[in-house]
Amino acid sequence: MKHCHQIQQQFDERLDGRLDAPAAAAFDAHLAGCASCRAAWAEYAGAWRLLQQLPAYEPSAGFVERTLRQLDAPAAAPQPAWWSAWRWGALTTAAAAVLLAVWAGWMRWAAHQQAMLYAEIRQADFLEDFDVIASLDELQNGEANL
Amino acid sequence: MAAHDTDTELMLRVKRGDRAAFRELVERYQQPVINTIYRAIGDAWEAEDLAQRVFLQVYQAARRYRPTAKFSTWLFTIVHHTILNERRRRARHPAESLEALAEPLGGEEGEGWQLADAGAPDPARAAAAHELQGKIHAAIQELPDAQRTAVVLCRYEGQSYEEIARVLGCSVSAVKSLLHRARQTLKERLRGHY
To answer: Residue A76: which pLDDT band, with cuts at 50, 70 and 90?
Structure first.
């Protein structure tokens, strides 16, 4: 004899007609003698059966004809190949623009840093010929000689 | 066209460019496809539009069609993905979803939509029935996508766990779990009405 827990685990199979005849008979027999399971089943099955209250709708007149006419129209649902190509092209261009902007910004910053460095060098009193200075090493050597 | 042509036989004819076979398939499946979409998105008119797209996809994919599964399984897989795409689109454009909710359930009578069981003579009972249908509809739509598809295919299209598993790309035990969780949710949402 099945316990209530086992019976309630069979609620889905019973609802969907997946219990064989002997199992279905045992299920029904248990419910006949168990008020608790009977109440649980009434709730479980009741909600499911309520779904049948939703009416079915008949397609509007001419649906088939309208659908068949679409066969001769340009394909609407799937996006055409050119759309995918355009979209990827746009994304690639945008990515390239971002990279270019970042590179240009970095170059400006580097140029600014270099300009600041040259400005410091110009202010160094020991330098007689600014254009000779090609690296900081020479500057440092100059400071060391002070 | 033989009346007993199976769906697969018809689809193989469509593959060879037979439009009459395609018409037959559309006639056979227009109602289940439209109803499945309608029950998922709640917009009757949009359901027809999306159903057309489903059938167009079927026609456009015909050249690649191979009868490795039931035609209905393949068809409802397309339906399921169409619904997912539409719900994602509506999530990005909620204003359009609100317009759909404002429409009366099933559209206006006389505009092509006919209730399969229309004609409750008592206006009060009709109103109560209409309200209940709205609650049932909302309860189904609020289910997670996979649960909702499992419920609609099981309850309204009579599909087996195995067929639903193929549509959803999951196991049979996963389908059973989806249905169980959906039924628990529906039991709570619709408490007092059954």
So the answer is: very low
pLDDT tens digits, one per residue of A87-127: 677 788 888 888 888 888 888 888 888 888 777 767 665 54
The interface predicted TM-score (ipTM) is 0.78
Collapsing DSSP states into helix, strand and coil, what is residue B181? helix
- Alpha-carbon distance A5 to A3, whole Å? 5
pLDDT of A117 reads 79
Give the long-range contacts of residues B142-149, CB within 8 A, separation 24 or more: B142/B189, B143/B182, B143/B185, B143/B186, B145/B83, B145/B84, B145/B87, B146/B170, B146/B178, B147/B178, B147/B179, B147/B181, B147/B182, B147/B185, B148/B40, B148/B182, B149/B40, B149/B80, B149/B83
Contact A54 B133 (CB under 8 A): yes
Chain A residues with beta carbon closer than 8 angstroms to that of B193: 50
Query: pLDDT, tens digit, for every residue of B49-72?
Result: 999 999 999 999 998 888 888 899
Averaged confidence pLDDT in chain B: 85
| CB contacts, 8 Å: A12 with chain B | 176, 179-180, 183
DSSP at A57: E
Average pLDDT over every residue of A35-42? 94
- Min Cα separation A57/chain B (Å): 5
Cβ–Cβ pairs < 8 A, chains A and B: 123
Distance from CA of B69 to the nearest CA of A (A): 22
Distance CA B8, CA A134 (A): 82
